[in-house]
User: Which sequence fits this backbone?
């Protein structure tokens, strides 16, 4: 909508649209007030610089998104319809994803993994054991005894693996035979995206 | 269709190739309202995502197995990108990379 008028009252300057409604007000305190509507950029990759007094890439918030994704897993792990749909919030290059799933059928010894909504960053400064993210997993009806369960995604990957680890023991990737048809899993993960 | 009618439209509004072989697909669900002039005004938009890689890779002992990703159920625009991006060289590079990573 084209700007049609810039007016000024006793204290503030307002920018009005063609309907004569004030869209933007510059207050006497030199703040900018968006009276209605949102702010968006017509060019991809542009954003708002926060925490810097000049245009600095590292201080620019250029991406935000909320949505859902369909988490896929190994071929021998069947999930209750709809329970493989997670939700995510992406802020800048950080993605926080939530997923709850229930098992309906299971066989074999495949590794347990789930796909993610975004590809993780390829952090070449670290070796392959350094995950881009480690998240929390809660499980029910799974056979790990007292082991701690966690999840991680590696570099340049959209695959989240589930692990369990005991006291003074190596971590082990979870397999289908650690679960049964009553198993459930809830997880939260935060990771850096590519 | 008449003014005020509400329709739902699905559109892959963002298909990105990330780090050589990852194809990130964002599907937008748009709720549209028909206007007096027959045009449609978007009321809401929500997103659903998935990521495609050329293979589903698994490791048993020291042996890796790479199963080609089935894209037969993907939309035509996604298939076109996958076909163009997943060349033999890219597929080979993906396998090499995956096998260099720990599980």
Assistant:
């Amino acid at each position: 909508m084209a700007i049609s008028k810039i007016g000024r009252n006793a204290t503030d300057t307002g920018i009005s649209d063609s309907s004569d409604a004030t869209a933007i007000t510059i207050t006497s305190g030199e703040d900018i007030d968006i009276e209605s509507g949102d702010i968006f950029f017509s060019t991809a990759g542009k954003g708002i610089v926060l925490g810097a007094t000049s245009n600095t890439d590292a201080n620019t918030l250029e991406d935000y998104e909320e949505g859902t994704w369909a988490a896929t897993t190994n071929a021998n792990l069947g999930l209750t319809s709809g329970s493989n749909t997670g939700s995510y919030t992406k802020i800048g290059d950080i993605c926080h994803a939530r997923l709850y799933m229930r098992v309906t059928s299971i066989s074999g010894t495949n590794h347990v993994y789930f796909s993610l909504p975004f590809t993780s960053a390829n952090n070449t400064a670290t070796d392959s054991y350094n995950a881009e993210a480690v998240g929390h997993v809660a499980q029910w009806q799974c056979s790990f005894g007292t082991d701690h369960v966690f999840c991680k995604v590696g570099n340049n990957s959209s695959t989240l693996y589930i692990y369990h680890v005991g006291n003074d023991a190596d971590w082990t990737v979870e397999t289908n035979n650690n679960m049964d048809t009553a198993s459930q899993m809830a997880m939260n993960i935060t990771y850096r995206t590519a | 269709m008449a003014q005020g009618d509400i329709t739902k439209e699905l559109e892959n509004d963002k298909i990105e190739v990330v780090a050589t072989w990852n194809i990130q697909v964002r599907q937008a669900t748009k709720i549209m309202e028909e206007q007096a002039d027959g045009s449609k005004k978007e009321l809401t938009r929500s997103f659903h995502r998935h990521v495609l890689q050329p293979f589903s890779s698994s490791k048993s002992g020291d042996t890796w197995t790479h199963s080609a990703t089935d894209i037969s159920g993907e939309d035509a625009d996604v298939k076109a990108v996958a076909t163009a991006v997943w060349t033999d060289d890219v597929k080979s590079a993906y396998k090499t990379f995956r096998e260099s990573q720990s599980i």
